[in-house]
Amino acid sequence: MKPDDSRIATIEVLYFARLREAFGRERERIELPGTVKDVGDLTAWLRSRGDTWAHELAPGKPVRVAVNQDMASADTVVVNGDEVAFFPPVTGG
Amino acid sequence: MTVRVQTGDFDVGREMTAMRHGNPKIGAMACFVGVVRDLNEGANVAAMTLEHYPGMTEKALEKIVDEAKARWDIYDALVVHRVGTLKPTDQIVLVVVASAHRGEAFQACEFLMDYLKTRAPFWKKETTPKGGRWVDARTADDAAADRWS
Q1: Which residues on chain A are in Cβ contact (under 8 Å) with B135?
Q2: Chain B partners of A62 at a C-beta cutoff of 8 Å?
Q3: E-only strand ranges, chain A
Q4: Which of its termini does chain A have fewer beta carbons within 10 Å around, N or C?
Q5: Model confidence over A12-35: pLDDT tens digits?
Q6: For residue B44, how many C-alpha atoms fall within 13 Å in the half-sphere facing its CB?
């Protein structure tokens, strides 16, 4: 069977610290087009919202991403039902 | 092995007493307490607010404690990290490690703090006379964590 690129994945996206303030929200449910397959695609898709999104998620910005509460990288796959979090480098302790 | 994230304060003596209670094999305990300072990067800090990622933070801390246990022969470890708004002189974080001899306890305690600072999802925002300011991650903390790899 051919992959169905029209499939819609629903994911929960969380934002923390500076990103939560910049985007004015701590979480949102997003329906993604099938073309968004991984963290890199998702970041680019959010960046395409423009303004603050393009600025805060610009390439080279120190943004970390976790998928289902494990640290992820650009090629980490995102599927229906996932919890994806965006946040700055951590500063605890 | 325990990790806790809480808004309330902790009692260092009580935590250490509880850890060694009933375990006569323990011959050494190392303890680290992080405290809020009133000055950071040239600005007076009136207060500090700590945010975390409920669920992931606890999992990340447990993973770090498991790694310390795999690397050193330790009997027990405790990490307590506070969140919410804290003031200068308030305690932020506690790490306690128990082992047979001091070497393991000292090293595991330092490792736990170095990894916590670079891997556990916590973020600090300082209140200064010029307003709120998110604390930037420090490359010195990355270098400290890299020593253990």
Answers
A1: 91
A2: 137
A3: 9-15, 27-32, 64-67, 70-72, 83-87
A4: N
A5: 999 999 999 999 999 999 999 889
A6: 3
CA dist., res. B115 & res. B95, Å (int) = 12
Continuous segment of H or E residues that includes residue B128: strand B122-128
Query: Terminal CA-to-CA distance of chain A, rounded, Å?
Result: 51
Mean pLDDT of B137-145: 91
Q: Are B122 and A92 in contact (CB under 8 A)?
A: yes
Residue entry with tokens 């998620």: A57
Of B34, B113, B122, the CB nearest to A90: B122
- Nearest-10 crossing angle of helices B102-119, B139-146: 140
In the stretch 47-106 of chain B, residues with CB closer than 8 A to chain A read: 50-53, 55-56, 59, 81, 92-93
Segment A36-54 mean pLDDT: 96
